[in-house]
Amino acid sequence: MIAFFTPEVALDQSLHTYGGGLGFVSGDFLRSAYKINFPVIGVTILPRQGYYDQHIENGLMKINYVNRHYDGILERTGIKFTVEICSSSVWVEVWRLPEGKFGAAQILFLDADIDPNDHISRLNTLQLYGGSRDSGANLERKIVQSLLLARGGIEALKRLNISVSKYHGNESYTAFVPMELACEALKEGKSFREAVEYAKSKFVFTTHTPVRAGNPEYSINSVMRMGGYDKFFDEEALRKIGSDPFNMTAACLRLSKKTNAVSKKHQETSQKLWHWVNGNSVAKRIIAITNGVSRDYWQYEDFRIAVTAKEMEEAKLKHKREMIQYIVEKTGRYLSENVPTIIWAKRFAEYKRPHLLFYNFNQEKSEWIKSQLKENKLQIIYAGKPHPDDDNMIHAFNRLLFASYELPNLVVLSGYELWLSKLLKAGADVWLNNPRFPMEASGTSGMSAAMNGALNLSIVDGWMCEADPENYFPFGTQIPGGDQDSFDAQELKICLETTVMPLFYGDKEKWYKKTLAAKFEAEKYWTSDRMVLEYQKLLYID
């Protein structure tokens, strides 16, 4: 059995256990594992308040935290135990998603928001990644959440008598999993070197974040003190594992037998980013397994069975009307099914550049896109959540929101969850993806959009480097640095003006033939079924 440890997982609207793309990929991985009968069990935490609920109130984005109860959705296993955190016992209850529910493999959820834990201990799994500054997040709580995931997950698997052949860490938040495996070996009398080798034999790792700042680092002292690792080795040994400060990704790289990036371009970026770990001996072994999406979950049936351009057009118009009706009910704004609709919907992060269409909002460069909206030549929809502590991106969301009150054909939606993601992908004519090169690890939203008749308008980064350029609209530079945003904004305008809009308005049959080709490509190459089979072949087999 493969034990798949992940900090978040997205499976159903009723299960608020995800924050963004990492959760979407985890959910699709577990769906495909169940579908192809591959022996995997998921392990994650149960954040009763999830990431956060996003609303628009009085013209501004608002963040709300809501406690959720999972009786009737998850099963109680009846298993409770304590794990030691910072020399204190923390109680953990194990919940379970039964195998096959939501079309996924079995998943264990770890919950510390229970009696007899004190108030502080109960907060440790309440929100994803320890929450926000307004809800009491701090570095120590983030460390504790990773410790609870590792220690609680390993103990839960033991108590359920599940034999694990490999532990798979999905992103660096799982770094304490191999640490715990090494400590178990040390308890059995193995030397430090032997314990490290044992952990490496049992642990494989997937890295996602291609920017050093996005990979958690903690003080050596905090990790040693909170993890109680001084019972097993000294600080110098801890530095050999995670460097100083303790870098969670470096620890995963050093304690894993195999590591993968999530696209071929990301493999190249990761090898450069982590070249300093063990003199590049670890980084150069990073392989590429490109992400994929669950066709069974994301693709609507009418797109699935479409084999002609006419059938693609009929399916698109049906779902576009459904999306337009939702927007009317949500915002009172009316859009047209006959105007090309661009959708930018993903996590609001600075490197993803939600502002690029309106680059230099109040200056001449953004006047073109504003004129297209006013003249009813384009429609644009935005959706997505900023991190609750990212004031700049909350401001960016609100700035677009303010613009939507003044500009026709511009809509900004709140509450970007699974259901809304599916609705928008099926309703979009164009799915816009414009991260700052080379900061996109893979990106998967465009894969499921293509399965539902949307054409990607994208920077050539992440998985798009592997896609057929005939089946999407590429733009932008692949040379980082300089005035990259300004250049890409101009290239985006040119691509819309000279390629996208003339094709949509000038030759509908050719447009839908292109959507059909993109759909066929996504169905063949960009599925999580393929991804899981590659994990089985390339990562799990010794």
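(ticket continues) Second input and output from the same batch:
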Amino acid sequence: MAMSCTTTTNPLLEKFNTPHQTPPFDQIRTTDYLPAFRQAIAGAKQEIEAITRSAEQATFENTIVALDQAGEQLSGISSIFFNMASANTNEEIQKIAQEVSPLLTEFGSNIYMDTILFKRVKTVYENRAAAGLTPEQNTLLEDTWKAFVDGGANLAGENRERFKAISVELSKLGLQFDDNLLAETNDYQLHITDTANLAGLPESAVEAAAMTAREAGKEGWIFTLQAPSYGPFMQYADNRGLREELYKAYGSRCYRENAYNNSDIIRQLTALRLEKARIMGYPTYADYVLTDRMAKSPAEVNTFLSQLLAASHPHALKDKEEVEAFARTSGFEGELQRWDWGYYSNKLRIEKYALDDEMLKPYFKLENVIRGVFGLATTLYGVTFREVNNIPKYHPDVITYEVYDRDSSFLAVLYTDFFPRASKNGGAWMTDFRSQHVRDGKDIRPLVSIVMNFTKPTENKPSLLTFNEVKTLLHEFGHALHGMLSRATYTGTSGTNVYRDFVELPSQIMENWALEKEWLDQWAVHYETGEAIPQEYIDRIRNAANFQSGYVSDRQLSFGIVDMAWHTITAPVEEDIADFERRAMQPTEIFPPVAGTCFSSGFGHIFGGGYAAGYYSYKWAEVLDADAFSLFREKGIFDPETADSFRSNILEKGGTEHPMELYIRFRGQKPSTDALLERSGLK
């Protein structure tokens, strides 16, 4: 009897036979990841060993460039997997992440602690002056040298082994932090069955809650802790008791006494980061991290934050007084609490400016906003977008585009993923499945993804965005442009591979166009009537641009301040994390504390992401973007010469040179905080 035998291949380990060699998501099974990682790590080790064992004298090409190119398959698999772990996860993926992360961390540590390999890097580094390197090559060399030094290359004995062990443990803890936060966010539901408890809520929020209830197989309405559900409830619901309940549920995520409590994880993370810094000879983790930032020390960061706080806090206190006085005219008694702020603040905004999210949303249909954002990129940089259906997707919600330059040459693939789901982390982010680089003389173009959590369409309405969601899309699209327009030679210097406190400039500058009539007039039309957004609405948006800017600035500064507090500790924190946080954030506070809540337990940017000792960069980049956009305002918001300069000096350059040199080349001067304070109405 004849027997047939089939061999199951792993698509992650094959050459991607897809358009633009995009990941074959339609073929990848969850069970493919772990064996793919193991094989790719083994292959990457062989590539590293070939560099280490080379009998040739170490040169920039055979050592630094070879290192930049090594492990390309492993990098690709990692990009795919960890993007899925954030945007489309499940329990199996989470378990694989916990198994794979230590392997990857150990692999990286072994590279940086390879004494023979470090000797080769050191040889190239010490002879760099005579090597005739280009600015980009010199940057890659400097970055490689620093990665080895920061990765423990100079360590020996017990310190060496302890450094490696800490790195592995930190990778596990960061993943567990994010898994806990996602689980806590998904676990809570505010189930309403009495229509009286819907008072004040706009029709769109009620309709979305009804759809959520139907999907859960329940009667009535369900509100969740995901932003498109949580935000409108806190802003519009008349029922103060339910606002309080929802606020406390959100504010206590991962701080309750259950399996998802992040308190011990935070104490362990910060203690291990401190120990790691101490091993490297730094007094705090922030000192260790800030050696490759535009702000070079904790003192410089804290001075920067303090200066902005001094400018914004008096305004924040006045903002609260104004809202409190307004609330009392509506019959409110007592002291304004945090769950009252969004509700009364919104009502005051309506009274002062006749402006409300609900009146604007019909003009911000998601498809129209996308058209406007893409059109802005076409006007400024000449790039165009073509939706395609032949590129595999990791979820049905994803839309894929081919991106072309003004000369019709292919630039990138862009993935967009807009709506919340239980398998997706909260917030918004840009990432890539492949960075731009040159290999064997060929320009390998990037595969870029932007992920958001916008209001979903319902049975009766399309996805209608709030004004803040429009700005969020502009922000993430700015990151995407940074990746898509990259013209670097090496992976390590391309796209968003820049200093953490510079990476937010391309994103935050894009938000400025949201206030510009000339741009809004091009695409903002009523989704039902086709009527253009009225001029008076645009005037109101502009007039309200600085509404409560003191409070907004204070709130953002408080995040940066608590981040610096956690990462400038000189001894492990043993007290309750909320007590530590409250003391750090006290200079920014305008509300009484709420027992049982804690911001840090859900602060994924610094405990699950890469912003530890770096959250200040959002405010730092605000200074850059305000100063940079002032040139657009001076020359014209669509001025071709200014746009070309921003593209060629900032967006295309990635991390090929020091960011301040790139910025000055574009702007002609160093940035000043004056532009930010003036734009915000704080000066």
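Agent notes: The first strand starts at residue 190 and ends at 192. The chain is about 55% helix and 5% strand. Closing as not reproducible unless the customer responds.
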